[in-house]
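User: Design a sequence. Structure:
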């Protein structure tokens, strides 16, 4: 028997995944929409073979932010 709560959560995660796949929302927003930690959503996306939208520019921005916050 299907638990309605599980079906609803699965549907929400799949919808968020599709929006992320289409680059309509960010990874963080997909996690928020599906009420899933970003790390867990990344694993979910990987299981569905959805590549991460993370460019070299994103890496540089994150590195600069880390340096700024560390000082």
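Assistant: Done.
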């Amino acid at each position: 028997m299907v638990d309605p709560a599980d079906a609803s959560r699965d549907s929400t995660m799949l919808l968020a995944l599709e929006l992320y796949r289409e680059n309509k929302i960010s990874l963080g927003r997909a996690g928020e929409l599906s009420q899933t930690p970003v790390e867990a959503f990344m694993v979910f996306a990987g299981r569905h073979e959805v590549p991460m939208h993370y460019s070299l520019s994103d890496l540089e921005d994150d590195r600069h932010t880390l340096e700024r916050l560390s000082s």
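Helices lie at 4-21, 27-33, 38-47, 56-70. The mean pLDDT is 88.
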